[in-house]
Design goal:
By secondary structure, the chain is mainly alpha-helical. The chain has nine helices and no strands.
Length: about 200
Amino acid sequence: MAKGKVTKDDWTMAALRALARGGLQAVAVDVLARELAVSRGSFYWHFENREALLVAALEAWERHATTEVIAVVREEGDARARARMLFAVALGAEEIAGLEPALVAHTAHPAVAEVVARVARTRLDFLAEIFDGLGFGPREARHRALAAYAAYLGRLELRRTAPDAAPEVLPDDPGAEAALDHFITMILTPPQAPA
């Protein structure tokens, strides 16, 4: 990257990659400046301090990984296709591998806690909306939203901690598509009444 051509978004994405690699302590201005091949002055052109960078990075994550995904999925008119699209996008390849588990691991930091909680609420509300659109009642829609979100977080954690034990959670694994289809079918199928 040419010196002087680094944008605020370049800094926030570098901060998110660093956070995924090494947690909050890895979001260090000097390290990021070297990664971006710029001086510290570039940082101060865009941010007042490290905390401002962190907040901007968290807001960028929220926008890219939640707000924009929901907007695209809402454009799909068919409720079942909308649900399949959401799960395929959410459970597919990660833009920054390991980012969400890293964020969850650092919720002791107030800025991280605030954004992670807001994202969880937004996602759970949207998942409940998806299930409501499929004809599940409000209580069942909420319960399915909780189950789906827990499965999403668990899948990300398996990718990070146990990819050899569960290779199907890796997007490029030959069994990934079948495992994803099974999950989607399972989560979208209404319970059968006892015989």
